[in-house]
């Protein structure tokens, strides 16, 4: 039905006018309103062809929004969870890893600011940093207070 197709199209454009979406996210949002899955797939293919739906832009948006608070592991996990392809994730990984130590230091300084005085405090700081998605070698460098 053309009327229903317009509704799905209008919904999709409405969502994309507010922020970038991954293909998987948009598919999930549109599925309840579509008569069949093929309708949504063909619409998403059309949007991708026109450049309105871009996995690369979506990944960049997530990275931009999260990189000041989270480590590469957590950001990569979120991207994969939202259906971003392995190729797109690997394309942004070098940039993420390059700034990870700097980000880790900033996150740590904001939360703690003082090197741990005992094993209990060190474990607490490590757990916090790990929960933010930083890897153990980066956390080690931050907690050693090393300048490199």
What global shape is seen?
elongated
How many H/I helical runs? 9
Radius of gyration: 20 Å
The percent range for strand residues is under 5%
Order of helices and strands: HHHHHHHHH
Major sheet details: none
The span between the termini is 62 Å
Number of strands: 0
| Poorly predicted ranges | none
DSSP helix fraction:
over 70%
Structural class call reads mainly alpha
Number of domains: 2
| Mean pLDDT level | 91
What do these coordinates show?
The chain is mainly alpha-helical and 148 residues long. The chain folds into two domains: 2-53, Arc Repressor Mutant, subunit A, CATH 1.10.10; 57-144, no CATH class. Helices cover 73% and strands 0% of the residues. It has nine helices and no strands. The longest helix has 17 residues, at 2-18. It is elongated and about 60 Å long. The N and C termini lie far apart (62 Å).
Short note summarizing the structure:
73% of the residues lie in helices and 0% in strands.
List keywords for this structure.
single chain, 148 residues, mainly alpha, Arc Repressor Mutant, subunit A, 2 domains, 9 helices, 73% helix, 0% strand, elongated
